């Protein structure tokens, strides 16, 4: 995003030598920068939430953000208002919702649950093993 914003007038030289196209691309660096940022952060946050065992919640957030919010708003802005903006609003909403979920998570509680699962499913008593090592 930073590279795109710094090189906004010359970024299109990588892809085209047409002056008219270069001028058109120079008008879009902020939208492109935001798109790159959101599409970089959103998969990471989604992966953290899925890895945390919240697959169903992430699925509902995806469905709501893209199909209930993003698609209709993208259609309205892109075709009705002729602004050409599409699904980036859905990605932005999904990123914000997942950030909120991760922010509100009690990570100490999550760690305790993971430790209990390891004790139960690992077949070993972790506390007994740790106590034997320290003695």
UniProtKB/TrEMBL annotation:
Pfam families: MatE (PF01554). One of its GO terms (cellular component) is membrane. The chain crosses the membrane at residues 57-77, 83-103. The keyword Transmembrane helix applies. Keywords: Membrane, Transmembrane, Transmembrane helix. One of its GO terms (molecular function) is antiporter activity. InterPro entries: MATE_fam. The keyword Membrane applies. Belongs to the multi antimicrobial extrusion (MATE) (TC 2.A.66.1) family. This is MATE efflux family protein. The lineage of its organism: Eukaryota, Viridiplantae, Streptophyta, Embryophyta, Tracheophyta.
């Amino acid at each position: 995003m930073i590279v795109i914003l710094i090189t906004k007038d010359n970024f299109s030289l990588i892809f085209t030598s047409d002056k008219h196209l270069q001028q058109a691309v120079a008008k879009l660096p902020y939208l492109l920068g935001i798109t790159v940022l959101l599409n970089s952060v959103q998969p990471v946050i989604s992966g953290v939430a899925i890895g945390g065992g919240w697959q169903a919640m992430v699925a509902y957030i995806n469905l709501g953000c893209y199909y209930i919010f993003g698609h209709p708003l993208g259609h309205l802005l892109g075709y009705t208002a002729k602004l050409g903006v599409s699904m980036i609003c859905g990605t932005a909403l999904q990123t914000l919702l997942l950030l909120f979920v991760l922010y509100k998570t009690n990570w100490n509680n999550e760690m305790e649950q993971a430790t209990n699962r390891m004790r139960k499913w690992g077949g070993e008593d972790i506390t007994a093993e740790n106590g034997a090592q320290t003695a």
